[in-house]
Design goal:
Elements: H1 2-25, E1 33-37, E2 40-41, E3 46-52, E4 58-62, E5 65-70, E6 76-80, E7 90-97, E8 102-109, H2 145-174
Parallel strand pairs: 2-8
Antiparallel strand pairs: 1-3, 3-6, 4-5, 4-7, 7-8
């Protein structure tokens, strides 16, 4: 009979841990940073797309250039703006992190059309490097004390309930 009680307590504890696990893996958009450089470009010009903080590939789409994928190990990609883009228009550029958040940035099309496309800057503007996020098991985003406290409270409540339940049931059979 004691083995059944111990197994029940273990299952209850694992259930509590399973219910709190999704909070640990939830995407955090505060660390997903994106940019388009330059933010104003002539039709037919090139833009450099930057994304950091995504643990997978980032898909970038807009109505003014073909869909582009930024590989997680590169951090940037280039796209050529359509020559028939409407001058002085503002287009939304959508950055979608695989298994994570989505962010939008505006891209303005300049009023004039150059004879040659806009060139990529000599020194690409890359976001600050924060090091490799490999092997840290999801802790790279930092600690959220509120989530840790909630998880600890749930586990403590589950263990306390299992203990109380076990004590109550053992008291019923002793009489």
């Amino acid at each position: 009979m004691h083995a059944i009680r111990a197994a029940s307590a273990a299952v209850l504890g694992l259930t509590a841990l399973t219910l709190t696990a999704p909070a640990a893996f939830a995407g955090d958009s505060r660390h997903f940073e994106v940019s388009v450089s330059p933010s104003t470009v002539a039709a037919g010009g090139q833009v450099t797309l930057h994304a950091s903080g995504c643990h997978g590939d980032t898909t970038v789409s807009s109505g003014v250039f073909d869909t582009t994928v930024i590989r997680r190990d590169s951090g940037s990609a280039t796209a050529t703006v359509d020559r028939d883009a409407k001058r002085s228009a503002v287009y939304s550029v959508t950055f979608a992190c695989k298994h994570g958040p989505t962010k939008n940035v505006d891209l303005t099309i300049a009023a004039g059309r150059p004879d040659t496309p806009t060139r990529e800057p000599e020194r690409p503007l890359t976001p600050a490097q924060r090091g490799v996020h490999a092997g840290v098991g999801g802790t790279a985003g930092g600690f959220d004390l509120q989530k840790i406290g909630l998880g600890a409270a749930l586990v403590a409540g589950a263990l306390g309930s299992a203990y109380s339940w076990q004590r109550r049931r053992s008291g019923d059979h002793d009489a």
